[in-house]
What does this fold into?
Amino acid sequence: MEKFIQTSNNMGYMSTYLDDYAKEFISLCNAKMRIFEAGAAFGVCTIPVLGKGTKVVVNDLSSHHLDRIWNECPPLFRDNLVLAPGPIQECHYEPESFDGIFTSRMLHLLKGEDIEKTVANFYKWLKPGGKLVAVVDTPFLKCYAKNLENYEARKAKGEKWPGMIYSTEDFKHIVHNNIPDFINFIDLPTLERVISEAKFTIEKSSYISQNSFPSELKFDGRESAGIIALKP
It folds into this structure.
């Protein structure tokens, strides 16, 4: 299997490698749980969770991606799989609907206000004691290094979203150029701020060295950031 798969909707690439945060989320799941996965792409985490007997509501902007998850899902697990296509900020669920929520490398594809709205919804949708596990891409990607000066300047000014690239036109020449018109890269302090402001209790957070990324993206071991947070 390819390690870095192009999405069908110009929203970047899905890594088939499970980082430590994805692995930890899978380890948390069991047959008594109902979980939500946001921005699942082709479901590299979805199928292992279903294999544990967990009920899964899986979201992605692309219905094509979700159809592929359904087709690749063993028939034995399909009764526990619900597809939820569409923008995450337009999803609606009752409070305390889920025991866990997972999202990997999706939040940085949203504008700041939509990130805040989405994380607030995650908190509302989780049951008390439920956990959110989230992974985002950071400004520290090799092919975006020329934006680091802008990022550092914005960060020094105290801007809320210092990793925002308002137009990706200058990066269309890179090899991995299946990208949206803007990207809101999120460093670890920004991720921690957003999660804390939503009233979560942070249990673990760190940068992630994405050794499985193509060489064009690998930079200094801070390519992604991850967090595990509890709803008290």
Remarks:
- The mean pLDDT is 93.
- The chain has one domain: 4-230.
- The domain at 4-230 is CATH 3.40.50.150 (Rossmann fold).
